[in-house]
Every structure is written in C-alpha cells, then in structure tokens.
C-alpha cells in the first residue's frame, strides 16, 4: 500500500492509495497488479470477509477518526497507510482468507468492476438498516446480543472448558494490551520531549558561550552546543521510530483482540441459535404429544403441528451444524493465532530492547565525545 494522495478538502476529503500486488497464487491470472483504493474499499474487504467467514479471525482495520480525517495531517495519512498495509498483508497470509474471492476482487478488479461492487455493497448495507418486523428484528439482534454473552456464563455448561479458559484469557488480555500501548505512547512522548528539551538547552548553551567571546569557556560551550544538539536529534529520531516499530504494533495487537472477540461472538451466537432451536423443538414435541392425546381433535390440526415439528427439527439440525462448523474452525484458528502472536510479540520485545540498547549507546558515545572535547579545551587553556 503506497502513494497516498489526498482528494478534496474539508469533511468530504479522502485519501487514495495504490495497492500493488505480486502473486504466484493460482487464482490470479497475472503476477503483478496495481489498483487504486480508498479507506472505504478496505472496509468493503473487511466487512465481506467477516460476513462470509464466521468464526475466523479477520484482521482488523485501523480505527476511524473524524477529527483526524478532517485535518488530514501527513502523519495521520502515513499511519493509516501503514496500518492498511498490515491489514492487507495479514489477510493475504491467512490460511483461509487468502483464497477468498473477496480478496481476489479487491486486489485485481479494474475501476469499472470495482465501482459496481461498491455500489452493490452500499445498496445492501442500506437495505440492512431499513425497518423490519418485530420477529425479524429479534433474529437480526441475536448476533448483537450474543456479543454481551462472550464474557458471560450463560452457555458455559455446553461449551468446551478449554475454550472457556481461552475466552476468559482473551477478554482479560485486551485491557492489558491497551495499557501497554498507552504506556508505550507515553514513553514515546517522553523521548520526544527530551529531544526538544536538549535542543533548547543546546541553544541556550551556545548563547551563553558567546558572552565569553574568545575567553576560555567559549570552546567548551561550543562543544556542548554541538553534542547536545546531536543527542537531541537522536531522541527525536528514536521517538519517531518507536511510534512505528513499537507503539503501532502494540495498538494493532489490541485491535486484533477485538477481532478475536468478534469471532467468539459468532460462536456464541451460533450456540445460542442452536439452544433456541432445541428448546423450540422440545416445546413443539410436547404440544404435538398433547394434541395426539386429545380425543376428537381434527387430523389436519395434528398434521399441521407435525409439520411444525419437522421444520423445527430441520432448524435444529442446521443450527447444530452451523455451531459445530464454527467450533471446529475456531479450534484451529485459535491455535494458529496464539502461536503467531506469541512469536510476533517475542520478536517485537526483542527488537525494542535492541533498539533501546543501540540508542543508549549512541547517546553515551555523544556525551563521551563531549567529555573528551571539554577536557582538551581545558588542557589547552591551562597551557
């Protein structure tokens, strides 16, 4: 994801990106594609993958920010570009999502094909927000209400105990990751503030040295000005690198936890639908038994109830299959996620420690050079 270009002004402004793809995948006719996409188009890919891959962990998009979108600062645009690249790369590396028709369309559809897809998606999205009947609304809200059950205990008796442990771990991990990101951002700001303070100190040292004109302190203050400015530049550069190499990955980890919770909500919704279908079938069987035991009841009434029982039984079969499919997919998905994220977090912490050690060594080297220069200046003045 490269070459961000701002289009328009004010609240209607948006940014276009070039998405360049090199692939040897059998689904792609050519080995290289270059298309232009905007944030809305990445949202299309994300929403389609979520819709068609229940129980899978779909990589998250960066958050929307109305304020930053209005300002469209260069830093915000570049941060979003990097986050979108992480999103696309994670989708392309996912063992299931990489084979999706949606990713293929996103990466290679020309402008005309793409606009048709977006128009169709917008129409579907608009239709989903139209008023519906009370019964239909209940079913529509089933998934959303299940989100609140992800942390609850309602279905634990039917769930795998090992899965419940993982679910509880994921729910607690989100808060810890958000706090780690907050502290990383605080550390980044402190480093930037140190750079600013050192730069201002260097300027004051230079001004102080000028008052001595050609006196013995002039050379020492000139050295201090030079080395303090060097260390200030190191701190500013480290702060900028920390934002990209440490704070941003931590934030992406936290967003991914929400994606895991969304997949778990799919599983909870499927289990709830399965439980409801089972309860519905049991009630209909009881009703049928009562009707059969009622003397003089018309056969058509019994036949109608038998059809209801058969339909409820089919719904039970369907919901059971839906739940078991998600359950089995999630077993592999959570194993993959835990292994990959453990490796990534380990690498992130290792690289952070190495970068901090290198940064500290560079600072020590600069201050050591200052000490040597001041000692030389002092010795020269003594002679």
UniProtKB/TrEMBL annotation:
InterPro entries, per database record: AH/BAR_dom_sf (IPR027267), PX_dom (IPR001683), PX_dom_sf (IPR036871), Vps5_C (IPR015404)
Keyword 4Fe-4S recorded: no
Subcellular localization: Cytoplasm; Golgi apparatus; Membrane
Gene Ontology MF, one: phosphatidylinositol binding
Protein name: Sorting nexin 1
Family: Belongs to the sorting nexin family.
Major localization class: cytoplasm
Keywords annotated in UniProt: Coiled coil, Cytoplasm, Golgi apparatus, Membrane, Phosphoprotein, Protein transport, Transport
Superkingdom of this protein's organism: Eukaryota
Membrane topology listed for this record: Peripheral membrane protein
Entry GO terms, CC: cytosol; endosome; Golgi apparatus; membrane protein complex
């Amino acid at each position: 994801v490269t070459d961000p270009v701002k289009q328009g002004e004010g609240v209607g402004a948006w940014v276009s990106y070039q998405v360049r793809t090199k692939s040897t995948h059998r689904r792609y006719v050519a080995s290289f594609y270059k298309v232009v996409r905007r944030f809305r188009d990445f949202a299309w890919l994300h929403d389609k993958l979520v819709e068609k891959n229940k129980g899978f962990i779909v990589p998250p998009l960066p958050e929307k920010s109305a304020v930053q979108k209005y300002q469209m600062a260069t830093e915000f645009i570049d941060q979003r570009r990097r986050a979108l690249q992480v999103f696309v790369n994670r989708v392309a590396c996912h063992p299931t999502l990489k084979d999706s028709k949606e990713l293929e369309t996103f990466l290679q559809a020309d402008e005309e094909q793409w606009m048709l897809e977006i128009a169709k998606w917008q129409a579907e999205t608009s239709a989903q927000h139209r008023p519906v009947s009370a019964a239909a609304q209940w079913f529509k809200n089933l998934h959303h209400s299940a989100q609140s059950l992800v942390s609850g205990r309602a279905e634990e008796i039917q769930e795998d105990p090992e899965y419940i442990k993982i679910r509880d771990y994921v729910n607690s991990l989100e808060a810890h990751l958000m706090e780690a990101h907050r502290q990383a951002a605080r550390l980044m700001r402190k480093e930037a503030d140190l750079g600013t303070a050192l730069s201002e100190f260097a300027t004051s040292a230079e001004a102080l040295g000028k008052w001595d004109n050609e006196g013995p302190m002039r050379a020492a203050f000139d050295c201090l000005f030079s080395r303090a400015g060097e260390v200030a530049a190191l701190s500013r550069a480290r702060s900028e690198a920390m934002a990209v190499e440490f704070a941003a990955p931590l934030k992406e980890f936290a967003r991914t936890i929400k994606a895991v919770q969304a997949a778990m909500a799919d599983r909870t919704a499927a289990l709830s639908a399965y439980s409801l279908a089972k309860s519905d079938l049991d009630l209909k069987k009881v009703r049928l038994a009562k009707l059969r035991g009622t003397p003089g009841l018309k056969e058509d009434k019994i036949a109608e109830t038998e059809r209801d029982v058969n339909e409820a039984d089919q719904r039970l079969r369907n919901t059971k299959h839906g739940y078991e499919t998600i359950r089995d997919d999630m077993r592999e998905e959570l194993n993959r996620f835990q292994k990959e994220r453990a490796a990534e977090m380990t690498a992130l912490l290792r690289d952070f420690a190495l970068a901090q050690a290198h940064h500290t060594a560079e600072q020590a080297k600069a201050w050591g050079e200052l000490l040597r220069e001041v000692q030389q200046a002092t010795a020269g003045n003594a002679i």
